[in-house]
Every structure is written in structure tokens, then in C-alpha cells.
Design goal:
424 residues, alpha/beta, D-Maltodextrin-Binding Protein, domain 2, 5-stranded mixed sheet, 4-stranded mixed sheet
Length: 424
Amino acid sequence: MLKREKACRIMHMFFAIGIIIVLSHTLNAEQPKPITFLHYYSSSHARLAMDKMVAVINREHPEFQVKVTGFEQEPFKVSIKAMLAGGNPPDLFTYWAGARVQLLVDAGYLEPLDDLWEQAHMHERFTPAIAQASTYNGRKYMIPLTQYYAAFFYNKHIFDEFGITVPTTWTEFLTVCQQLKAAGITPIALGSLNRWPAQFWFDYLLLRTAGSEYRQRLMTGNAAYTDPEVKHAFNLWKQLVEQGYFAPNPNVYDWFEAGKTVVHGQAAMTLMGHWIMPMFEKEGWKQQQDYDFFPFPMLDPTLPGVSVGPIDGIVISKKKNTEAATTVSGYFADIAPQQTWIQAMGSLSPNQHIAPSVYTELQQRMLNTIAETPYWAFNYDLATPDPVAQAGLDSFVKFLDHPDRYIEILHELETQANAFFRTP
């Protein structure tokens, strides 16, 4: 009897050990590989949108587990550079395409993604312009995440009340401004308290008069801010300010406050990225009923069209869980996560395979406008190295306070830009 009980206990013990071993192997086999991911979408609805997007990726690819953390934009800019320099960056993080990604590439902080682009047929998902925005030093370093478009957003009730047709040329635009001012309505709202909203005026005026090739030379230090092309763009801007077409004291207000003056009928339009749309809709406005958009008017019909705006993307830290992080980065460009992001954010996807039905009619028109434009340009502070961009943004707000001093301001800016580009 005792021998039988002892044998049973031994059998139970081995059985229990077997279960533990099986469970251990099972848990180890199913344990997701952690991928750390940092982003700079700081508003509550943007963080929620990113959480939803990551949840889709984690659900569809359970062999990985993306751990997402959101930062405020300004602290993110400082923190990510410190993490990279200290050798402790996240596996993945969002970054602004253009000069800022270029800086990290040149510093050797990022992992190239050429193989992923080839294997995942990324060139079929993105237009040549978007693919170019992901290319640095001849190699792919970014997975495009979202695309923003800067255009005029206007109060449709005001335009309808005064029978105003959306302008397509600069002459028509000036006529609209004159008509609005005569009716006692400020034509243009601009809130440049944080400097960057003013850049879209310089961007478009220069691109519409000097073209994208010249503008690129200026952004890379191969042209001067004292050139006739830049002075001409500033002179056009000066004429608008001196005619009283802008709301007074634009440097006192931020872009959000300027947008609200359009909602309340104090101003008729504002030049801004389409991220202004959620604010309009939070105020109770409906697309194409209360507000609409139009592209920046043409000035020189011989120049090819250019659309302006930032492109955000996913980049991979070098020598940091590289293989898994690279695989996961590609999932952010898939249709299901992209659709989740679009629906939560109201943004535009750079993935051209997204079904039109995912977008509103206004968004579809916006995408068609972008698709019909031959060139894409990053906004100023993403197109030129950051030290020059900061000097330029300072110059734009100085100009808005003192438009008659634009020649002097441009000479000061050229001195600062030249010091950066010519320093060994």
C-alpha cells in the first residue's frame, strides 16, 4: 500500500513538473517581443488616435508588442536628441521629414530601411513625392505616417453672402481681399504668436514666384536671402500687410485664436495646415457647409505647382532591437492601422491605397489637389537646418511688426544663415 502511494506521489510530481515545463515553453513561445515607441502627438484626441492605431498593430501582429508613449512636442524635441546621444533611444519614434530627419541620418542615429521598402513594395503605396520625402543620402530612412496640407480655409457664409468666387490667381485673390475689406470684414487671420504659422506665407509666395528649385537652393545655403527672388516675395507680403488685409497685431495671437476669428465671422480666411479642421468642427462647423478650402493662388503660370506641408514618419534607432523594430515599422503603413488613424484624427494618409470612402468629400478634394500638384515642399522650418529655421522664423515675426524694414531684416537673416552654412 505504501509503495503504491509513493509511486502515485512520484507520478503526480513528474506530471506536475511536465505541466510546468510545457507551460513554461508555451509562455516563452507566446511572449511578445517588446518594441518601445515614442511619439509627439500631444493633444488628447491625437494620443487616443495613436493608441488606437497601435492597438490595431498589436492585435494583428501578436508576435510583437508595441509599447507606446506620447510626449509634448517641445519636450520631445529635446528628449529624443538626448536619448539618441546617450545611446538609450526607443526602438521606434515619430519624426518630421525633411531637414530634421536629415540631421539624425547625418549623425548616424537612424537605421536605413531600403530592404523593408523593397520587400513590402512601399513604392506601390506611396507617390514618388512621398517616397522622395523618405529618402536621405540616397537611402530610405522613414516610413511615412501622415501627411498635412497647408491651404486657405475660409468662412463659406461670408463668401456666399458677398458672392465671392474662390480665387485661383493672385489678381483674383487681391480683388477678393479688397472686396472683403470694403465690406468691413478682415480678409486674412494670422496668429503668429508661436512664429511658425507665418512661415506658410513665405513658403508659398517664394514657391509661386521663384519656383521649387530656387527655394531648395535657398534652403540648403546655395542661394541668399538678399537675392532679388526673396526680396520680391517679401515685397508682395509687405503689400498685403500695408493694405490692411491682415488682422492687426498677428504676433499677439496663436493660430487657434486666429482660426476662431474666421469661425466667428471677424475674418474671412486663414492660411493654415488642415489640422485646423478639428477645431472648426469642435466649434460646430460642418465641412463644405460652413467652411471650405482653396489652394494658394497662382502667381506665375509658367511655374509648376507646389503643395506645402509637413510629413510625419516612423524612424528606427540604429543598433536598438533593429530587426524587430524594422519589421514593426512597416506595419504602420498598412491599410487597417492607417484607416484607424484617419478616422480618429481626420488626417490624410500618404498611403494612396486607402479607399476614398474612408475620407469625407472635402478630404477627397484635398487629396485630388495634392495628387494633381507636380511637387511637394516641406514647410520652411522642416526644409532648412534648424539653426537657420529658427533665425528665419524670428525674421518672419519681425517683418510682421515692421514690414517696411524687410530689406534690413533679410540682410540680418542672410548674415545668420551664411554663418551657419559657411562654418567648417
